[in-house]
Amino acid sequence: MPQLLRVQSFNVSRDGFGTGEGQSLERPFGHADPTPLFSWRAATASFMYRTEPGGTRGLDDYLTRDYDHNIGAEIMGRNKFGPQRGPWENHDWQGWWGDNPPFHTPVFVLTHYERPSFTLSDTTFHFLDASPAEALERARQAADGRDVRLGGGVATIREFIEADLVDTMHIAVAPVDLGRGERLWDSPDDLLDRFHLESVPSPSGVTHLLFWRR
């Protein structure tokens, strides 16, 4: 089976924004409150940070479980990793996720500035100054036959779409407008020249958009 490059459970607002404006250490999503974007997933029985029994089943839970199914590596942009810009001046900063990041695979962070790899728990972060195709080749080698997840953010997803490297996408559209920030699209129909699209509404209020390569 071919190794797929998948965008999995990526969240956008109804007006197409994946994050707000003005990212900082204290506000990873800038001016936007991320809660409305992620609440559908946090409510599920399979949510990775759930500490108590319970949670919803059904469509949202199924797609939450699919987040890491057959994933062997992740690619992310630098802005998903953290708020620093320019040369890496603080190597003590090791991402938003604490000592046990939720990836459990090699992660390849795209950046124009060198930084040594490091490992937290069972996740190793590598820092690449590479084209999308070069980064995908590295990630596929590390994934050991499994798929590669393209984790975002928005600019990184758009870059890989433009390079015609993305095979499938699951985008969860929340019923909220952000108004400004980083926009994935004006309309999901913008991508119909590259992808088939199925739209599946959920009782939680989000609409799940499932794209697969033409």
Automatic annotation (TrEMBL):
Domain called Bacterial bifunctional deaminase-reductase C-terminal: residue spans: 103-190
One Pfam family cited in the UniProt record for this chain: RibD_C
Domain of life, per lineage: Bacteria
Matches recorded under InterPro entries: DHFR-like_dom_sf, RibDG_C, Riboflavin_Biosynth_HTPR
GO function terms (MF aspect): 5-amino-6-(5-phosphoribosylamino)uracil reductase activity
One of the protein's GO biological processes: riboflavin biosynthetic process
Protein name as annotated: Deaminase/reductase
Protein source organism: Micromonospora haikouensis
